[in-house]
Design brief:
alpha/beta, Rossmann fold, 5-stranded parallel β-sheet, 13 helices, 5 strands, globular
């Protein structure tokens, strides 16, 4: 009897570890669809489709939360583009700056969107350093390509807009807007649209309380139990964020729509 119980417990442990490993891989390890390493390593061939590079961190990679780049890729009006997902989990502005040549310039893009800075805020990267990094990113993309460039403002961190971390975020978003104006590139008001939606909601928002355990739990609900990212957010009492940082489908749709409008505005007649 003891031997049978031991075997059952071992099988249960193997199953739990296997499930946890699957969630961990799907969320934190696997690459996004069409990353630069696949799409751009050997350079672009003449006559290939125009390339759009979406550069950023985990919100762009889209394996934890909504895949807004994939949603953009699937829109019928943009079937003529090739979308390259240059989002990397955990990336800061310094990390993106270090991979500009391989992840953006090498793709010879027609258009580039940049959504970077959430991890700078969370890591207390000094605002002046963030501003310098962002300006250097834009300058390097402009020097190495002829692409149109759009800087996106950062989504709220948690849905309590009065929280200290969102007060700090204000300075980083101001730096994004200032950089766009100074370098004469486009600015997409992601933060502003999300804030408008959250203010319409009313009620008492849940305080910012991100943790790896919460992120892993959100991913488990999605990948193991088949819940949509909207359901995951709703289960936590949130409107746009599955774990106080990453976007549900509704939040991702805001970025998709802004990027789609921007791309359409730049199409030749």
């Amino acid at each position: 009897m003891k031997k049978r119980i031991f075997i059952v417990l071992c099988l249960l442990l193997v199953g739990v570890l296997g499930a946890a490993g699957t969630v961990g891989y799907l969320t934190f390890v696997r690459s996004p669809a069409n990353p630069p390493a696949d799409a751009c390593a050997d350079g672009r061939s003449p006559g290939s489709r125009p390339v759009v590079v979406a550069a950023g961190a985990s919100m762009t990679q889209g394996t934890l939360g909504a895949d807004w780049v994939g949603a953009l890729r699937d829109r019928p009006e943009h079937q003529g583009y090739e979308f390259v997902n240059a989002g990397v989990n955990g990336a800061t502005s310094a990390d993106l700056l270090h991979r500009i040549d391989t992840d953006i310039v090498a793709c010879r893009p027609t258009a580039v969107t940049i959504l970077i800075g959430t991890n700078d805020v969370r890591d207390d990267v000094p605002l002046d350093r963030y501003r310098q990094n962002l300006g250097a990113i834009v300058d390097r993309v402009k020097a190495g390509t002829t692409a149109r460039i759009a800087l996106m403002s950062l989504p709220p961190l948690g849905e309590d807009l009065n929280a200290e971390i969102n007060q700090k975020l204000t300075g980083y978003n101001a730096a994004i807007k200032e950089t766009a104006a100074r370098t004469q590139v486009d600015y997409l008001p992601v933060h502003e649209q999300m804030v408008d939606l959250l203010r319409q909601r009313g009620g008492d928002p849940t305080p910012y309380d991100f943790s790896f355990a919460l992120a892993f739990g959100a991913a488990t609900q999605h990948y193991l139990f088949g819940r949509s990212w909207d359901e995951v957010a709703r289960n936590g009492g949130r409107e746009l964020l599955v774990d106080h940082i990453h976007l549900n489908n509704r939040g991702g749709a805001i970025i998709t729509e802004l990027a789609a409008q921007w791309l359409s505005a730049g199409k030749p007649d």
